[in-house]
Amino acid sequence: MSLVTIQFVIFCVAFLVAYYAVGVILPKWQWCISLVGSVVFYLFSGPWNALLLLATVVVTYGAAVLMEQWEKNSKAVMVGCIVICVGLLLLCKFDRNFFMPLGISFYTFQSLSYVIDCYKGKSKAQRNFLKYVLFVSFFPQIGQGPIGRYERLAPQLYVPHGFDYDQFAMGIIRMLIGAFKKLFVANQLALFVDAMYENPVEHAGVSLLVASVCYTIQLYADFSGYMDLAIGIGQACGIHLDENFRAPYLATSIRDFWNRWHLTLSTWLRDYLYIPLGGNRKGFFRKNVNILIVMLVSGIWHGNTWNFLIWGGLHGLYQVIESIGRQAGFGKKPDAGVRRVIHIVWTFFWVNLAWIFFRLPTLGDVVTMMRQVVFGFFQDGWKAELWSLDGFYGAFWIWAVLGVLCMLIMDLMREHDVQVEAFVYKQPLVLRWAMLFCLCFVIFVFCNSEAASSTNFLYYRF
Amino acid sequence: MKKVIIRFVGFLLCFAIGTTCLLRFMPDKFATSYQRGLVRQYDYLRSVADDEKIVFLGYSTMCFGLDMDRMEELSGKRTVILANQISVGYPLFVEMSKEYLHPGDTVVMEVYDYDYWDVGVDNLLTGIGKQIDLYRFIPKQMRMEVAARFPAVVKKNLEYILNRHGGFGGPYSAEGFDGRGNYVFYRDECVLTDPYEGESGWTDYTDTELPEDTIEALNAYATWCKEHDVTLYFTVPPVCEDVVKAGTGDEATMDARDAAYQRVLDAPLISRSKDYVFSREYMWDAHNNTKGQLERTERLYQDINRASE
């Protein structure tokens, strides 16, 4: 069930009503409503998906409990658990005969972080099996994250939450912002991106380059839109999920980019892979090797093709080059002004280049595209391609430019620690309702897009 | 919680009113579209509701293939055409006709081997435009889909405004209709390739089956007509002889197809397919030209006359 469908809206309304009703009548059991809601939500994706989720839950639950009871062999238990869960994840990703359950990459990592934290003594094993199921399957985040940490998420899930109007309202506003990003920005850009990338050899290099920039923004709008929806639902329930983005395209270096993009994955990789590998404690060379390994793993986490591996490898290489540059005294972080803008644009360029591998299905398509950029930049018909998409001429670009401007404004606000939903909420009633009206009207008009990925989010496939 | 409900309901009301106002005053870029002809046909139907009339229901083959004035001259009765492009579909016209048919009226309906419910909802919505009272004729089977597609149609209209779309013109536009919904755009010679190369598809008379949904819907309408003392006849669309698939256009095959249709339909099929195969002289594209429109009208009148004796 996608988060931008009418079915989900109905489900969400029913869930919130039940959640707060039980919160008043039987507050101790409010978490059960979250559990039931999460199970129902996940069952919509299919019973086999639910079975695989149950398998991961049982293995990781059992491992944590076993480690506490069997301290002598806790390391072996942890390793065994990791092997099973990662094995299952790799089987789903690499075996074409096997299906990809919704959110497997996300809930696997979330469960493993719990097991590892239990091993390290950071968390105590959750003895209540149903409570643990809720931690793994909490529905706002199971599809695409954010990947939660047990010590932060679990305490919020199990305690009753009274109705807080301010948090509820801001949560709803955040959800509307998420729907706006997905339906107005991502879906519209997808029309152009899909048309250009379907068969790159037929299109001019300039169109393909523009498509690559559109995809870069589409992916961000799509993924961050989902995050806003997920975090918004959580906020409406009184639960604060971890942020996953911090204006990533305003990064001034690749290292900075990874401190802003998919934060919960990058911190997971830092805490559970990079640091155990030695981090930066084993010398300059080893540090860069570790960075490369982490980024390659990140690539594989996303998908089982060479393109994803190359994407991860590119980001690893970028960071290694930056690291060498910093070591040599270059790349001092720019504070403000033109230098900062140049760094932002420079970083955006390299990130954009890597996303080409992420989007195109095969290496052959990437090569074709590059060839078109070099040899067919202004291929015949390029003006028509850019200006008369689907017969809609300028309207498409008006939406696109408006959408990008809105994203930029929201990111600039976040860069200055202004929460967009809080900003909207704090306005006087008339202005607030006018802003919400515009938001809702745009969502209404764009809710039934022709874009192929119209209700599915891009990161669902991971 | 009370605060939530009050503010939520208040916002919803404001949103509904605001959106309605916006849509009401938004320029209608589909005002000159071909499918907007259905509004003129509806207005005319209402204006002659109390007269004894013959209502012709069909797709564009009926629209291009019937001359109202000639039919009125021949039959001596009011003639109403409820016909538009195939994607506008039958369901709206059928429900609309029920409100304005009275005992003694006649309906002549084209039979097409097309799924009754296969409606291009976007074209239907852009055809209805701001004629809000037409929404009540949308059958309940289609209402969910219509509601789901409504925002996309609003978006399309907005895009046409932004693109400064100049409106529609030519034969496939509202320009083709007079104020009564009679199709009057002058069509001269046949524009099909000669020899025909199959660009609009082929008519195969060996295909004798009608879709189940179509049979069910047409027979439900036949039952309604019987219950309300309205005479219902079925007819066939005109076809260019060049478009008939080789080996399927002999008289026996066509008669067999007609017989197969008659077996499943609960109202008389008054026309023979062989009488509605026209040479290029009477065709424009897949539809009659102006000369063919008159000729088809004459033939159809003969069929109605014969059936009513």
Task: Please outline what is shown here.
The complex is a heterodimer of chains A (462) and B (309). By secondary structure, chain A is mainly α.
Characteristic key phrases:
heterodimer; A: 462 residues; mainly alpha; 0% strand; B: 309 residues; alpha/beta; two-stranded parallel ribbon; 10 helices; 45% helix
What is the strand and helix layout of this fold?
The complex is a heterodimer of chains A (462) and B (309).
Chain A: H1 6-25, H2 30-43, H3 47-69, H4 74-94, H5 104-120, H6 129-137, H7 139-142, H8 150-158, H9 165-197, H10 205-236, H11 254-257, H12 263-274, H13 284-302, H14 306-327, H15 337-359, H16 363-375, H17 382-387, H18 394-415, H19 420-425, H20 429-446
Helix pairs in contact in A: 1-2, 2-6, 3-4, 3-5, 3-6, 4-5, 6-8, 9-10, 9-18, 9-20, 10-15, 10-16, 12-13, 13-14, 14-15
Chain B: H1 2-25, H2 37-47, E1 53-58, H3 60-64, H4 68-75, E2 78-83, H5 91-100, E3 106-110, H6 121-128, H7 140-162, H8 212-227, E4 231-235, E5 239-240, H9 251-264, E6 277-278, H10 290-308
Parallel strand pairs in B: 1-2, 1-3, 3-4, 5-6
Helix pairs in contact in B: 4-10, 6-7
How would you characterize this protein structure?
The complex is a heterodimer of chains A (462) and B (309). Chain A has 462 residues and is an all-alpha fold. Among the domains of chain A are: 6-143; 167-252 and 368-461, no CATH class. Chain A has 20 helices and no strands. Chain A has helices at 6-25, 30-43, 47-69, 74-94, 104-120, 129-137, 139-142, 150-158, 165-197, 205-236, 254-257, 263-274, 284-302, 306-327, 337-359, 363-375, 382-387, 394-415, 420-425, 429-446. In chain A, helix 4 packs antiparallel against helix 5, helix 9 packs across helix 18 (394-415) and helix 12 crosses helix 13 (284-302). The longest helix of chain A is centred in the middle third of the chain and has 33 residues, at 165-197. The two termini of chain A are 16 Å apart. By secondary structure, chain B is of the alpha/beta class. Chain B has a single domain (29-127, 164-308), classed as 3-Layer(aba) Sandwich (Rossmann fold). Chain B contains 10 helices and 6 strands. Chain B has a 4-stranded parallel β-sheet with strand order 2-1-3-4, with helices on both faces. A two-stranded parallel ribbon of chain B has the order 5-6. In chain B, helix 4 (68-75) packs parallel to helix 10 (290-308) and helix 6 (121-128) packs across helix 7. Chain B is globular, with a radius of gyration of 21 Å. The chains are: A mainly alpha (462), B alpha/beta (309). Chains A and B meet through helix 18 and helix 20 of A and helix 1 and helix 7 of B.
